[in-house]
Structures are given as structure tokens and as C-alpha cells.
Amino acid sequence: MKINVDRERCVGAGQCVLAAAGVFDQSREDGLVELLSAEPPQELHAAVTEAELICPSGAIEIQP
Amino acid sequence: MTGLNDIVVVGAGAAGATTAETLRRQGYDGRLTLLGAEPHLPYDRPPLSKQILTGHWEPDRIRLRAPEAYDRLGIDLRLGIPATRLDRTGRAVELADGSRLRADAVVVATGVRPRRLPGREGADRCGEPAGVYVLRTLDDALRLHAALAGGPRLVVAGAGLLGTEAAVAARRLGADVTLVCPARVPLLDLLGPHAAGLVAATHRGLGLRVRRDRVTAVTTARGAVTGVRLSDGSRLDADLVLVATGSVPCTDWLRGSGVSVEDGVVCDLLSAAGPGVWAAGDVANRPDPRTGRRGRWEHRTHAAEQAMAVARNLLAGTAARPFAPLPSFWTDQHDLKIQVFGDLAGTDRCHIAEGSPAEGRFTALYGAGDHVRGAVAVNMPRQAQRLRTLVETRAAWTDRPPQPTPLGAADT
């Protein structure tokens, strides 16, 4: 699994941080998504998939 | 998997597309059809009144998933074909092209259409005089964007989230814009006084006029708009009119199906609307266990959350769980990014938690009955998450975080 985030699409809703805190964070300056781990371990895949689905701006893309 | 072999999701906006995708991710391996009335691949609507209307983004940019994703997920995506009838006893959905799809379960995600001005409720797009626009679909946004070239005079009827965002976008394109707002201040009920005040100041700074009134009719000459009439009897000249006065659920196709419809599809706490029928997104009218009231939530976050809940509940059988999200939405107003959690309606106290309205960035808590009921963040998205928990747990008002900077005037 490889994750891409599009900071221009991000609206800073923070849903990804709620779903997968170890993988996503919000930047201190603008609150937009920051990727902590672009290739997270297997045990986080379900949480990351949840984050991709719940993201209200479609800013998270997962490559299988 | 509860004996389901055919699921039809009607509506391919955020709610429909997320339902279909979640069904697959939850392990559903039967036939799955996603029907869209529009010809476009599922796309995200919030940018329509922002980056698409201003022309900063190309339409491809708002696709929810890459075109090949639907094949990969085994979703039979059929675009440009509205559903015309639900046959519950025959377990089928009928389409405008005459075809009939078998359905063990149907998810209604047909969304809403813009409300028209009084007396024009039945009008379709072709029936409107030239110069009258609505903004719901990608095609609507592209048409309005094209019409905004050359600095026309635009009247925006309605000053909710859509009307205000579109007015800002049009102003940035150089249009001469008047926002006709029936309320004292645009967005006051939704955002509270501090954030609504900043929005009003931003609108003024952009040279956007706000007129406190209601549009009652469009005036025309030779089939084209010349202006609008207001409820106080006066007239405003205009080359273009954007009608942004709310929306109507798309439920006509459910007539005679036995599905209960009253301002949307009437659902229960699980988002079910009867045996084998579910609803998600703008079209769903559901009870809110937090307040005991029923309603529809026309927000992007809600669409995704309800879609995921519906997909899970549909597959869960007796293990289905009530859907009780914390309401939330955001709006961009030029350089203000505003997030709201919970509900400010009926709150009687406010506490600025961080920053200050004067500096254009702050977080605020709103409360009633000694409990936190809502939170607003302006240009502080990271800090907003901390307040979210206080709203979600209905924290005691006395547990609110201390105010870091003295701002006596804001605390009431």
C-alpha cells in the first residue's frame, strides 16, 4: 500500500487523523494534511482505507 | 452475507459512490450497480462553488476516484441514466432507457435539486429565461463560470453556504455582485456572530454588496433576464441571476413505490427506509438521536459518513448499528476557512478558546444548559479537532478550556 495526499484538495477537516492518527497529521501552520508514513505497515491498512473513504475532499489516494 | 446477490445504488454523488466502495471493502462480492443521472464520473461537489466556479481547477480534478477504480472494485457504473421507478414487490429498479435491474437491496442516494423561485417550481433548465442559473452539478458550475466572463451584474438570490461562496467566486472573477439575503447577516445562524461578522467584513472588502431582502421574481425582456424584483417592491438590475435558495430532495422516482417520502426519504436510526431500502446523503431524512429531531443534512462529510454506515448496516443484518454522527461542515469564504461542529441553534453562551476574531483566526465554543453544544474554528483547522471532542461528549460548560488571551467582550 502506498498513500498519496493532495494538500491542495485538503480542506483540513481532520477526519484522516481521527481514523489513522499514526499515518496522518495536520500541519501546525495551516491544518492541512501531513503524511507521516507513505507506506504504512499492514496492521494500519484498514484504518488508512477508512481515512481514504471518509476524507471529505478526496485528498487521500491509496495505490494498492 | 445475508443472501444478497444484487445491490443497486441509485445516485452517483459522494454518498452513492462511497456506499458502493464501502460495500466492496466490507467484503460484499455480489453484483453491484452504481447509477448516475449525470454523464460524469462521480465527483466532489464542494469545489463547484469555489475552485470550479473561479476556473482555478479543471473538472477532472474533482473526480472522487480514477476512472479505472470502478472496474477494479467490480462496480458496474452506469452514467447518464436516471432511475425512473422502484418496484419493491418485484425487487427491481427501472431506468430511463427502459431497462430493469434486479435488486435485493436498493440504496437511495439521489440527492437534491435546486429549489426554483416562487412560481417557477416546475421549470427545468430549458424553461428558464436566459441568464437564470442554479448551481448543483458540474455542468451548472461550468455554465455559470462561462457566463461570468466580462464582468456582468450578478444577483445571487439566497445567502446560505452555496450563495455566499458563489458570490465570492463571482466577485473574484470581476462580476458586479449583489447578494440578496433574507437574514440580518449572511450565515449568522450557521456560524454564530463572530465568524459571521468576519465573513461580512470579508464580503465588504471584496466589494460584494449585501441587500437584506428576498427575491420574489425575475424580470425579463425578450426571453432574457433584466433584473429581479424584491419583496419590498423594489427592483435590482442584473444580467445574471443565481438562484441559491435551498434545495428539494430528488424523490419523484419513488412515487408509488411504498417508500415513505416527506422532505426526503424517511429513514430510521439505521438509515433504513423499509425492508431492502436504504438512504444516504442529502436525500435522507433521518432522526438525530442527539437532538430527537428529524431532518436532512446537506453536507459533504455527512454524505460520506452516512454512506459508510449504510453499507455496513446493509450487510450486517441484525448487527446493524444506529447512525449518530456529530454534525459538521466547513465553508471557505475567500481567505477564511471556517469549520463548524455540532449545532449552534439554541445555544445561549459563547467562549473564545483560542485566537481572537480581531486577528481573523479563533476557535469558539457554544453552549446551552451548561453543556458544550457546538464549536466554530476560523483559520485554525488543527486546533478545531480538540474542540470536536468537547462537542461530541457534550462536555460540561465549566470544563471548557481556559481562554489564553483576555477577550472579555466575547464571553457572554
Description:
The complex is a heterodimer of chains A (64) and B (412). Chain A is an alpha+beta fold. Chain A has one domain (2-63): 2-Layer Sandwich (Alpha-Beta Plaits), CATH 3.30.70. Chain A is built from two helices and four strands, in the order E-H-E-E-H-E. In chain A, the strands form two sheets. A two-stranded antiparallel sheet of chain A has the order 1-4. Chain A has a two-stranded antiparallel ribbon with strand order 2-3. Chain B is α/β, with parallel strands linked by helices and 412 residues long. Chain B has three domains: 6-113 and 248-319, 3-Layer(bba) Sandwich (FAD/NAD(P)-binding domain), CATH 3.50.50; 116-245, FAD/NAD(P)-binding domain (3-Layer(bba) Sandwich); 335-410, Enolase-like, domain 1 (2-Layer Sandwich). In chain B, the strands form seven sheets. A five-stranded parallel beta sheet of chain B has the order 3-2-1-7-19, with helices on one face. A five-stranded parallel beta sheet of chain B has the order 9-16-10-11-12, with helices on one face. In chain B, strands 22-23-26-25-24 form a five-stranded antiparallel beta sheet, sandwiched between helices. Chain A: Keywords: 3Fe-4S, Electron transport, Iron, Iron-sulfur, Metal-binding, Transport. Chain A: Its cofactor is [3Fe-4S] cluster. Chain A: It comes from Streptomyces bungoensis. Chain A: One of its GO terms (molecular function) is electron transfer activity.
What is the CATH superfamily label of the largest domain in chain B? FAD/NAD(P)-binding domain
Low-confidence segments of chain B, given as residue ranges, are: 404-412
Radius of gyration of chain A, rounded? Answer: 10 Å
Biggest interface, CB < 8 A: A-B, 22 and 29 residues
InterPro entries (chain A): 3Fe4S_ferredoxin, Fe-S_cluster_ET
Protein name (chain A): Ferredoxin
Organism (chain A): Streptomyces bungoensis
Cofactor (chain A): [3Fe-4S] cluster
